[in-house]
Amino acid sequence: MWLGKFLNLEEDLDDLESKIKQGILEDIKRNKITPLEFTIIETIFNSKELSGYDLILNLNRHFAGTWEAQSGTIYPILSKLKKENFLKFRPVKSPIGPIRKVYSLTEAGEQILKVKVNKNFEDQLRFIENFLVELSSIYIQSYPENERNQRMEEVKNSLKEIFENAVKKIPPTLDFKTRCSECGAEINRQALYCPICGSGIISKNKNNKYQSTE
Q1: Nearest C-alpha neighbor of 51 from the set 102, 86, 114
Q2: From the centroid of its chain, how far is CA 170?
Q3: Every domain of the chain and the residues it spans
Q4: Residues 197, 179 contacting (CB under 8 angstroms)
Q5: With contact defined as beta carbons under 8 Å apart, do 105 and 111 qualify?
Q6: Comparing C-alpha atoms, which of 149, 150, 151, 155 is closest to residue 132?
């Protein structure tokens, strides 16, 4: 989740106008979006295509219990971002249910995302560093003084593990590949449904029971 109540896109739109073909940004309806809207755009970009249901699952993994995405919040935002030309969708017929919308970024939405992240990448990393230091300090001091050295070592080990895992997962989506058993389409992200044909994505576990691929 990015800082600030709104992310101002005005300068980014100006930069893009001078770098990409004319007309691509004509249908963008506003120059400010909320951090949650931007996080949704990031998540869809990294997933290539996502249904609303799979987007909610991915957002809940992203927020790791600190906030829970609900359909009543996410679907209106998707509709709004589509109307404002950040997103597009295509209908996918499911063999086990109704037609679903599968969302992806428009060319304008993708270019805006790339420019915004590129211009603010180092600042966001520094923010994360500062946040982790402050959070860890408060956590350690919440314990009695005689326990703090032990907690400090635990925090250092946890942070080391977190950063090692983050490095291994960069980029977060390219190493994940599976194929739809119905249409054979390659899928690059955790999803419960194939974005091409709508079939459920399943795999066998050791107990020979079927479960959704995580």
Answers
A1: 102
A2: 13
A3: 7-112, 122-168
A4: no
A5: no
A6: 155
Say what the pTM is. 0.72
Burial class (CB in 10 A: 0-12, 13-18, 19+), 140: middle
| Dihedral in degrees, nearest 10, Cα atoms 137, 141, 145, 149 | -30
Return the residue matching tokens 């709508």.
198
Domain 7-112 has CATH 2.70.98.10: no
Averaged over successive runs of 10 residues, the pLDDT of the chain (214 residues) comes to: 55 60 62 88 91 92 91 95 93 77 92 87 91 96 96 96 88 58 60 59 38 31
Query: DSSP string spanning the chain?
Result: --SSS-EE-HHHHHHHHTTS-TTTTTT---SEE-HHHHHHHHHHHHHSSEEHHHHHHHHHHHHTTSS---HHHHHHHHHHHHHTTSEEEEEE--TTSS-EEEEEE-HHHHHHHHHHHHHHHHHHHHHHHHHHHHHHHHHHHTS-GGGHHHHHHHHHHHHHHHHHHHHHTSSTTTT--EE-TTT--EE-S--SB-TTT--B-EEE-TTS-EEE--
Q: How far apart are the C-alpha atoms of 158 and 152, rounded to whole Å?
A: 10
Q: What pLDDT shows up at residue 204?
A: 33
Give the integer Cα–Cα distance in Å for 131 and 142.
17
**CA-to-CA dists, residue 17 to 31, 104, 109, 167, 173, angstroms:** 13, 22, 13, 34, 29
